[in-house]
Amino acid sequence: MSATEQHGPMAQFEITRYKEIHIAGYDLSFTNSALMMVIAVIGITLFTILSMRGRSIVPGRWQSLAELSYEFIAGMIRENIGTAGLKFFPFVFSLFMFVLFLNLIGMVPYSFTVTSHIAVTFVLAFAVFLVVTIYGFMKHGIGFLKLFAPAGLPIYMYPIITPIEIVSYLTRPLSLSVRLFANMLAGHTMLKVFAGFVIALGFLGVIPLVVIVLFTGLEFLVAVLQAYVFAILTCIYLNDAENLH
Amino acid sequence: MPQLDFSTYLPQIFWLFVTFIALYIIMAKVALPRIGEVIEERRDRIADDLDNAQRLRGETDEAIASYEKALKDARAKAVDIGQTTKDALSAKGAERSKKLEAELAKKLAQAETKIAAMTDAAMAEVGAISTETTANLVSVLLGEKADAKKISKAVEAQLAS
């Protein structure tokens, strides 16, 4: 890692190993990415447990916020899957909170954006894909394959539609993970690039500074929005497994 | 691009597994049931309160109905009492006037008999006086005493005509 790289727009995405851990030849080092994930889990746990400490009938601010998140995800599942989908509630809630907290932690200066790494987002998306596929086959057996042949089409359409459906199904983990990863990557890179301009332009650097301030606001929106999109797409995919459209 | 440094994939994914599974367990076993419980409790409480309010309203309605019924009954009773009193009073009045009338009629009859008796007495006296006067006249005119029987007969005949 050279000095120029250190200050380039991509330097913020470097994985730094805080503690080298090698078990049976596998590199399981504790990195800055791992640290942020641990912080996120602790943060979510504190947020959801500490805020409910009072268990008040009339909630305070933090309790309202926790209940709001709970009702938000529960409502999302009821709307997209129906009440039968509430068994996925802890899964979708964990996913939403995890992505949301990681995105927001990434907005803190000098921190690290875990979700800007395709390795992480792809594993999360693939977990969703696995849950949907396994649950789909568990619930409908081989009938789950009817997902690829939607009913009510003229017979000659099936040879065209079925491959399209299969491809779109198989590329779901890719599109789900790339959407989150690319959004986070692009936003953070752009902020860094403009930050470089502030120094390079001298007095005129005020202009990119204003742009950074505005884009930082936008990045907060993107951070929340992408977590929401991730959760709602998970719900839509789970709906396929539950109800076979 | 650090994202394409495959040597970092394994540590990232390993810690992702560790943290996400921990998060899932904490959420599923502890955090979410607690939030759900509180929300459920509140929903029950609100439903209970609404039920209570509904029940109390029912009771109020009942109380109002019974009050109105009592008022109506009292009013009817008052009218009834008034009517009875009026009837009783008018009956009493009628009785009294009847009694009075009867008394008056009795007195009238008594008075009439008295008058009749007095008339008879007067008439009888008139007969006697006439007879006496006639006898005196006759004695003065004729200078002799007339037969009293004849005179009274003549006077009677005159009076009767």
Q: Beta fraction of the residues of chain B?
A: under 5%
Please state the structural category of chain A: mainly alpha
| Secondary structure tally: strands of chain A | 4
Q: Counting H and I runs of at least 4 residues, what is the number of helices of chain A?
A: 8
Low-confidence stretches of chain A: 1-5
What's the shape of chain A? globular
Strand content of chain A: under 5%
Map the helices and strands.
The complex is a heterodimer of chains A (245) and B (161).
Chain A: H1 3-7, E1 17-19, E2 22-23, E3 26-27, E4 30-31, H2 32-50, H3 61-80, H4 89-105, H5 118-140, H6 158-170, H7 172-200, H8 206-243
Antiparallel strand pairs in A: 1-4, 2-3
Chain B: H1 9-142, H2 148-160
Characteristic terms for this protein:
heterodimer, A: 245 residues, mainly alpha, two-stranded antiparallel ribbon, disordered N terminus, B: 161 residues, 2 helices
Give me a quick take on this structure.
The complex is a heterodimer of chains A (245) and B (161). Chain A is mainly α.
Describe this structure in words.
In chain A, 67% of the residues lie in helices and 4% in strands. Chain A contains eight helices and four strands. Chain A has helices spanning 3-7, 32-50, 61-80, 89-105, 118-140, 158-170, 172-200, 206-243, and strands at 17-19, 22-23, 26-27, 30-31. In chain A, the strands form two sheets. Chain A has a two-stranded antiparallel ribbon with strand order 1-4. A two-stranded antiparallel sheet of chain A has the order 2-3. In chain A, β2 and β3 (26-27) form a beta hairpin. In chain A, α3 (61-80) packs across α4, α4 packs antiparallel against α8 and α5 (118-140) runs parallel beside α8. Mean pLDDT of chain A is 90; it is low at 1-5. Chain B is 91% helix and 0% strand. The longest helix of chain B is centred in the middle third of the chain and has 134 residues, at 9-142. In chain B, α1 packs across α2. Chain B has helices at 9-142, 148-160. Chain B has one domain (2-160). Chain B has 161 residues and is mostly helical. Chain B starts with 8 loop residues before the first helix and ends with a helix. The A-B interface holds A 10, 13-15, 17, 21, 26-31, 33-34, 37-38, 40-41, 44-45, 48-49, 52, 55-57, 59, 63, 66-67, 70-71, 89-91, 93-94, 97-98, 114, 116-120, 123-124, 127, 181, 185 and B 1-3, 5, 7-20, 22-24, 26-28, 30-32, 34-39, 41-42, 45.
